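User: Can you recover a sequence for this backbone? Please restate the input before giving your answer.

Assistant: Of course. Working from this structure:
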């Protein structure tokens, strides 16, 4: 009994002990509520992520820096993270109140920079890379992400056009080729044609690779520079919803000052003896045709995104809609975009994908008669109204025999009559898997796809404006195209550290590129009805189709070395084959080498103000195969008709000679750079100097006429160029106090020279009025304007005779005509005549330098951004002056013609009306300084404190107003100095280009 009582007492005692342990453990794992405030040295921080480690339980701090976490295990760890500050991990240990002060992360050099086929810390970068971050991209609402690069990166020249849906012209460090100078675009490792299919709100960073050490890894495609886009990914923790909505309008109010009806009738009579007296001229109508073709266009944008994840995987899904009505009537752009990014972690195996789907519809501006609509609007008689219901189609046009010979077209009819739609669909994405084979050794395989379709439709019903402009049939054209690019990439990456401080990274990669494309084009006429806009067999005017195939194969090896971020070296070698070259030269070799020395890491700099002082140098060769497919083989052309024995037969002849010896263009780049940071990166900057030397440039070399080739040329490697310049980037950041601000500036120069053109004296292009405006000449600046030098107006016959000493009896040139400088002749000396020998270099559309200035500031709840960009030393050939003051025959014109030369001393700038043909010659008369400084963006925003809404519904609720292109300082007399027409031979020629509008927006950004 005693023994039983003993065990009973002991059992109760042990049971009590076990119960105490259970209660204690339960209390340690109890779910509690944790709250607090997150601050920095200057006060509370809004938008800080606070999450329970290893879970998706998390919140963001409100505007006052406060947070509350529910259902937190008492022994959990919370993680506090915020961009620009050191992440903290804090054990809860049963506490319900935890206040945190974050330390500013001054290690800007730890920023990860995406490079070709990998990433590096900024400290390890030895090449020339400019980075544009998401906050800079989002600050400027645009339809095409490339537009956001303008003025943001030194050495990157972006020329936008005002036309909705148009693709900006981008050149990195000038132009070093005679062909396609567009840079290579890469989105999340997928090589694409442009960035039109991606929303700016999906972009995390854009990195611009500018020198050989960064571009040579792309071998055959890197010579024009590389633009790498990294999209936003989901983050481990609480799921997040984001929305960015803005709406507004855009307008273009600048006009050419042209003659009104009264002035026009007086001008017609006095200048051309045309006494116009008809019902229209006496109607009192005074139409401003420029106003008739312009409008205020609505702008709308909606972007939404959901993201989140855990340590096992992350996701981000987004969708957006963008609409932009053009400032020219009946033009516009509409885009639907969807994106899905996901990554999953299975220990040693990681898989993921990115995918974007885009639907774009563009309403392009219609043109007619080889004239721009600005030209039609300038020339059209002002006494006519726009519409006439008695005419077929409902529009009014001129009647030349009663309008003094004026045959300008009604620009409103040109633009409005009919329908034009360009529909495009694109699917861009990749799937990858990465496996950790051993410590430091990773194998990655990736398949990328870029698929697109396009359907372009144009329908112009029959019309009758008058005897000068009519079309008795309906015209229908439909063009369809599709294509796909599949890229297979496999790589091995090995990273190791030797003796603790010597870091090595080896990359071995193979890549296969397969491109297929096809198209079909058809044009028909319907002579019966305007109601049928479909293709019909018996009405076909033209019909054609095509199929193309283009393949590349490449192998890459790259080795990076890093010693304590102090001494850095990198080298790469790539070998590529392209189907665009014959068997003789299908393979090309491309390489790079670079060195870096961070002087600030040396012991003797330990007490200096420099947190970074890195000297860099690189050199290497990248390539270019951007010519048409199958150019190395001769082609055939049919539909030639011959008569044999009186019978017509269809024949075939050569369509163009091939060249089996075609090979890669090569660009040798040498770059020297210096990066610096002072006072813990409060002041940052970089200085670059580069020389690009291109050789073996692909161009069409002229053939003798006796060869009988219909093209008159053969593709050859015959050109070489040299381009060099400086780039400077400076930044300052002040993060102390309630008022925080930063300013960043950049400047890039470029100077290009044509060195060799395959033995020909010059190559020219950019036609206007049967003349060529732009030339390439050995030893001269690239793509310069070529013309006569205007030297005033001849006031007397004696002045005429003093110039035309070799032909004193000529009577074509008279007083009142333009005087040009006699600078040369057939023998290279002035010869007393004005001929083509007197034409010389008169300017260049390639600017001397481009620059940008960005200022950001916040004061408590308010934020402010102002961004300027500009170009200096760029000339523009303003052909509109030809229409405004040319006066070859009667059209409406600019008011300047009222002050034309009518006798000695009356004018020394505007010649007599209907003067000598040489008055219309291409000369400095049409050349203007296109330099400008533009206020690209001005934004003022306000973030509401969460408690204003009564409860913590949102982690961010920001409203803002924004304006783009609000003012431009320029001496250019045209509508817009930012002129882009495509290729280098078209750059800087203003033929009535679609102008940049001013845009006014109000927007909302929220997240929760």
């Amino acid at each position: 009994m005693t023994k039983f009582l003993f065990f009973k007492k002991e059992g109760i005692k042990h049971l009590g002990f076990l119960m105490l342990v259970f209660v204690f453990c339960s209390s340690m794992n109890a779910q509690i509520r944790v709250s607090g405030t997150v601050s920095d040295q200057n006060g509370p921080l809004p938008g800080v992520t606070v999450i329970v480690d290893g879970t998706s339980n998390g919140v963001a701090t409100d505007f006052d820096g406060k947070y509350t976490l529910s259902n937190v295990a008492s022994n959990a760890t919370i993680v506090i993270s915020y961009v620009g500050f050191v992440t903290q991990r804090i054990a809860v240990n049963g506490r319900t109140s935890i206040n945190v002060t974050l330390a500013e992360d001054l290690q800007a050099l730890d920023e990860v920079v995406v490079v070709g086929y990998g990433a590096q810390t900024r400290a390890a970068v030895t090449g020339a890379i400019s980075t544009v971050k998401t906050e800079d991209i989002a600050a400027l609402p645009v339809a095409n992400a490339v537009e956001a690069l303008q003025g943001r990166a030194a050495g990157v020249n972006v020329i936008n056009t005002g036309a909705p849906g148009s693709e900006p012209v981008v050149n990195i460090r000038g132009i070093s080729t005679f062909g396609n100078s567009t840079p290579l675009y890469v989105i999340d490792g997928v090589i694409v044609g442009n960035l039109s299919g991606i929303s700016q709100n999906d972009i995390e960073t854009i990195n611009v690779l500018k020198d050989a050490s960064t571009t040579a890894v792309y071998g055959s495609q890197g010579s024009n520079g590389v633009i790498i886009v990294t999209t936003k990914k989901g983050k481990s923790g609480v799921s997040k919803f984001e929305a960015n909505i803005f709406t507004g309008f855009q307008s273009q109010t600048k006009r050419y000052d042209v003659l009104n009806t009264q002035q026009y009738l007086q001008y017609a009579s006095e200048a051309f003896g045309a006494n116009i007296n008809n019902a229209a001229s006496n109607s009192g109508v005074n139409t401003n045709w420029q106003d008739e073709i312009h409008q205020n266009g609505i702008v709308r944008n909606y972007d939404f995104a959901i993201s989140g994840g855990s340590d096992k995987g992350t996701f981000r899904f987004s969708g957006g809609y963008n609409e932009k009505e053009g400032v020219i009537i009946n033009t516009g752009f509409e885009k639907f975009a969807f994106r899905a990014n996901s990554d999953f972690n299975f220990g040693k195996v990681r898989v993921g994908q990115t995918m974007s789907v885009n639907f774009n519809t563009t309403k392009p501006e219609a043109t007619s008669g080889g004239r721009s609509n600005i030209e039609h609007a300038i020339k059209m008689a002002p006494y006519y109204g726009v519409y006439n219901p008695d005419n077929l189609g409902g529009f009014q046009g001129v009647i030349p025999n009663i309008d003094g010979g004026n045959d300008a077209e009604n620009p409103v009819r040109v633009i409005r009559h009919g329908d034009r739609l360009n529909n495009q669909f694109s699917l861009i994405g990749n799937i990858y898997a990465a496996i950790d084979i051993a410590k430091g050794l990773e194998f990655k395989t990736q398949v990328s796809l870029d698929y697109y379709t396009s359907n372009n439709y144009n329908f112009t019903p029959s019309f009758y404006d008058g005897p000068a402009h009519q079309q008795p049939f309906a015209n229908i054209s439909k063009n369809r195209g599709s294509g796909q690019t599949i890229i297979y990439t496999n790589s091995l990456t090995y990273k190791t550290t030797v003796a603790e401080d010597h870091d090595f990274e080896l990359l071995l990669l193979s890549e296969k590129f397969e491109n297929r494309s096809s198209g079909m084009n058809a044009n028909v006429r319907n002579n019966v009805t305007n109601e049928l806009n479909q293709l019909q067999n018996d009405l076909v005017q033209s019909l054609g189709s095509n199929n193309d195939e283009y393949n590349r194969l490449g192998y890459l090896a790259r080795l990076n070395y890093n010693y304590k971020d102090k001494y850095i070296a990198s080298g790469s070698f790539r070998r590529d084959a392209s189907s665009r070259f014959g068997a003789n030269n299908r393979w090309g070799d491309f390489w790079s080498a670079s060195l870096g020395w961070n002087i600030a890491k040396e012991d003797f700099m330990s007490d200096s103000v420099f947190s970074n002082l890195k000297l860099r140098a690189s050199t290497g060769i990248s390539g270019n195969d951007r010519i048409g497919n199958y150019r190395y083989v001769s082609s055939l052309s049919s539909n030639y008709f011959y008569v044999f024995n009186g019978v017509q037969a269809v024949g075939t002849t050569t369509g163009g000679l091939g060249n089996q010896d075609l090979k890669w263009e090569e660009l040798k780049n040498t770059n020297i750079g210096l990066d610096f940071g002072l006072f813990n990166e409060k002041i940052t900057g970089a200085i670059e100097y580069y020389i690009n030397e291109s050789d073996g440039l692909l161009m069409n070399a002229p053939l003798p006429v006796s060869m009988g080739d219909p093209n008159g040329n053969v593709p050859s490697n015959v050109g070489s160029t040299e381009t060099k310049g400086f780039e400077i980037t400076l930044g300052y950041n002040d993060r102390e106090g309630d008022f925080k601000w930063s300013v960043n500036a950049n400047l890039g120069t470029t100077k290009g020279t044509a060195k060799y053109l395959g033995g020909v004296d010059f190559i020219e292009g950019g036609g206007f009025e049967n003349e060529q405006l732009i030339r390439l000449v050995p030893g001269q600046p690239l793509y310069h304007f070529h013309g006569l030098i205007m030297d005033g107006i001849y006031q007397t016959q004696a002045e005429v005779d003093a110039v035309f000493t070799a032909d004193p009896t000529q009577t074509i040139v008279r007083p009142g005509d333009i005087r040009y400088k006699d600078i040369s002749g057939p023998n290279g000396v002035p010869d007393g005549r004005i001929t083509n020998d007197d034409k010389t270099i008169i300017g260049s559309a390639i600017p001397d330098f481009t620059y940008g200035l960005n200022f950001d500031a916040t004061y408590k709840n308010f934020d402010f951004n102002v961004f300027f960009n500009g170009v200096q030393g760029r000339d523009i050939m303003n052909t509109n002056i030809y229409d405004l003051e040319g006066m070859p025959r009667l059209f409406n014109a600019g008011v300047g013609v009222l002050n034309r030369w009518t006798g000695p001393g009356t004018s020394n700038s505007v010649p007599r009306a209907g003067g000598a043909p040489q008055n219309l010659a291409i000369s400095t008369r049409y050349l203007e300084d296109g330099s400008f400084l533009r206020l690209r963006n001005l934004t003022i925003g306000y973030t509401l404190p969460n408690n204003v809404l009564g409860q913590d519904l949102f982690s961010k609720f920001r409203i803002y107003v924004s304006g783009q292109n609000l003012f431009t300082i320029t001496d250019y007399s045209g509508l817009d100095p930012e002129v882009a027409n495509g290729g280098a031979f078209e750059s800087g020629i203003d033929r009535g280009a679609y102008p940049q509008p001013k845009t006014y927006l109000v927007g909302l950004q929220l997240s929760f």
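That completes the design. The chain is about 10% helix and 50% strand.
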